[in-house]
Amino acid sequence: MNVRLERNTDFNQEELPYYARVEIIAATADVGRVYRVPVRVRHHGLKKEFWLELCGFRIQVPHPQQLPSLIISLLRGLVHSRRLPTYVFIARRARSVFPVYTLGSEVFVAAPSGPVFRHVELAKVREYLTDYLHDIGILGEKGLSDKLHVRGIGQGDLGLRRPLFYLKKRQPGQTEFWAPVFPAHNGQCIYAYAADQRREEPIAGGLEVERLRDQVALALLNDGRLHDRFDLRADRLLPPVWEQLARHLDWVGQEVIAGTPIAFYRGPAGLLAMEARPDELRYGLFHGADLEDIRRRVAQDLSRRQEQM
Q1: What angle is formed at CA 189 by the lines to CA 29 and CA 52, rounded to 5 degrees?
Q2: Best CA proximity match to 181, nearest among 211, 221, 138, 226
């Protein structure tokens, strides 16, 4: 890897004085890729502290010239199977970060003390790692303490990306599917990894949510990992994502199902229901062949979540 500091000449140079230009020479399969990592400064009286984050790991130094060698050392430690992480799992209370890698159709994570957990489903890898971390005491007692949050790795700056929403399949007796959806670095599309490939849809004023869900559902159907396209749903949408999609929907009505208000809409892709989650500032969507089918799916999911509490 080659790393050098570049002066930031934009208006925000007081708080962001440098960029670290990271060029991949031979450490990973992405030879030739270049990342620009923002270097920020924090003032402590007369002293300065320069810091940056790479894949969820922070480097802090008193002098910016110390950064290049530390960046190289950190990134070399993060390379696994000639790849940098695709995601990270973060345990907030434990202040731990666990890199997650994509290799072919599988994702995998190397846990502390050596075990490697891999599966075609990101949800299963998180489940395996969670159980292991509970067993060794990092997450505390099961169901009572910390949990793992997923973040994507930015393709331009190696920073963390919060999911815009998730694509989920949780049907009784079937293998779960769970994939976070992120914005592309250029801001022109959204993407998720499913059925051995990166699946993406161009930004379309909110319609990209339904289009990506349809694309991933078709891929999972063809792969034998989905039996009904309505079993895959978009869940935990951030407010701006839902607000953009809602502009394309017509209100049908509202009902209370299992004590939860559920709003029904009709859009270009057909009927859907929306559950607002004000405590999380997120929105969940349900899809179905007709109103009765959607009601059944909503009731089933609410019951499942109640049993897990």
Answers
A1: 55
A2: 211
Cα separation of 302 and 131, whole Å?
Answer: 24
Q: Per-residue pLDDT for the chain (309 aa), expressed as one digit of tens each? A: 899 999 999 989 999 999 999 999 887 777 888 999 999 999 988 899 999 999 999 999 999 999 999 999 999 999 988 889 999 999 988 889 999 998 877 889 998 877 999 987 788 899 899 999 988 888 876 555 578 999 999 989 999 999 999 999 988 777 778 899 999 878 899 998 888 788 999 999 999 999 999 999 999 999 888 999 999 999 999 999 999 999 999 999 999 999 999 999 999 989 999 999 988 899 999 999 999 999 999 999 999 888 876
Under DSSP, the state recorded for 10 is S
Does the predicted TM-score (pTM) go above 0.70? yes
Distance of alpha carbon 41 from alpha carbon 61, whole angstroms: 10
Per-domain boundaries in the chain: 2-78, 87-151, 162-308
- Spatial CB neighbours of 94, under 8 Å, sequence gap ≥ 6: 133, 138, 139, 146
Structure-token pair, residue 282: 């997120």
